[in-house]
Write a structure and sequence with these properties.
With 364 residues, the protein is α+β, with helices and mostly antiparallel strands. It contains twelve helices and ten strands.
Length: 364
């Protein structure tokens, strides 16, 4: 047997119904496609990147960037398709067709999913109709919803192609479907809770809120839940349905911040001193640049067990926590000066013991 006959026999040798010739050809085609993918990335894509950088619009730059990975995977799908056509195993053709179709749907969904991240300006213009303050929250909600829709549709298309009837499958679940519906009840409630939050606008990302025993700054409003960063710097994930059922105190919407306290001075303080103290404190607060002028109350309103009690009620101009503490410290120090300058002193809980008569020495 000469070399040519040996080569023909080797190429015609069959493995699982596939000739060696077809296996070699499939390998060569697969390698060529992968090589072409590298050339495509280094030349055409690189050229496109340079081209879109010259335009004034940033969207085309982002579009080329986000489509790179799906395009790379598309070459792999093309290579698999050509390999299938070359080897052509009749019994497995149907399976390979389903796999290739599924991969194509995955690539399309992948590209759409990535594109949604880069067309947020469209949703931003729409969401601003709900109010400038909530535009980013509405935008995030729409984008997350569309991503979920893309994933669900991709799954349904793939399932239908594999011969799975989704409607019949859900209907055939019977009690299992009922159990699934009951399990999804909370998810649906959270979805409607998020819609209520976006429509009623009780808070937005960045607001400091208090709802029940939850106190912190809103970081993200999602479809199912809201993330709140506490002042201990931990993150609490709260279901939206729970938030809509709780009274919400939005501290960020304060236009001024309250200071409320009492001053207890000793019973030895004279009436004239009390009047001067009240007058001086009011004057100090009215002239203070960081105190709101709308509502300033300083009154002697209560006799306590061991003190004369003055009620002080006023507001700071700032609502920022750090600045508020600075203003409060400043007013407290000025009040101490006023008390001291009027010859009075602060009282503290005490009791006075009066002895009516001392015992005689002979009685001791």
């Amino acid at each position: 047997m000469n070399l040519m006959d040996l080569l023909k026999e080797t190429l015609n040798y069959s493995i699982l119904g596939i000739t060696t010739q077809n296996i070699v050809l499939a390998f060569v085609v697969f390698s060529v496609i992968m090589l072409f993918r590298k050339i495509f990335i280094k030349t055409i894509l690189h050229y496109l990147e340079k081209l879109v950088k010259k335009t004034k619009n940033n969207f085309d730059d982002k579009l080329v960037a986000i489509l790179q990975k799906p395009l790379r995977f598309s070459f792999f799908i093309l290579a698999l398709f050509l390999v299938k056509e070359i080897v052509s195993i009749d019994k497995l053709n149907g399976l390979f067709d389903n796999i290739l179709f599924s991969l194509i749907i995955v690539v399309i969904s992948w590209a759409l999913f990535n594109i949604l991240n880069e067309i947020n300006y469209i949703f931003s213009s729409f969401s601003k109709k709900f109010g400038q303050d909530l535009s980013s929250d509405i935008e995030n909600f729409i984008l997350k919803t569309l991503r979920v829709v893309v994933i669900i549709f991709a799954f349904m298309i793939i399932a239908e192609h594999w011969g799975i009837n989704i409607s019949a499958f859900i209907a055939s679940l019977g009690l299992g479907g009922l159990a699934f519906a009951l399990a999804a009840k909370d998810t649906v409630a959270n979805l409607f809770g998020s819609l209520v939050i976006f429509m009623d606008r009780p808070f937005k990302a960045g607001d400091w809120i208090e709802a029940g025993d939850i106190n912190g700054v809103v970081e993200d409003i999602g479809i199912r839940s809201t993330n709140i960063r506490t002042f201990a710097k931990s993150i609490i994930t709260v279901p939206n349905a729970k938030l809509t059922d709780e009274p919400i105190n939005n501290w960020s919407r304060m236009n001024k911040r309250r200071i409320k306290h009492r001053l207890d001075i000793t019973y030895g303080t004279k009436v004239a001193q009390v009047k001067n103290i009240i007058s001086d404190i009011k004057t100090m607060l009215e002239n203070h640049p960081d105190i709101h002028k709308d509502q300033i109350m300083v009154y002697f309103d209560e006799f306590r067990a061991s003190s004369l009690s003055l009620f002080c009620y006023y507001f700071t101009v700032t609502t920022e926590w750090d600045e508020y503490l600075r203003v409060r410290e400043d007013t407290n120090l000025k009040i101490m000066d006023i008390i001291e300058s009027n010859g009075a002193s602060f009282a503290f809980p005490s009791q006075s013991l009066y002895i009516e008569k001392l015992a005689n020495k002979q009685d001791v």
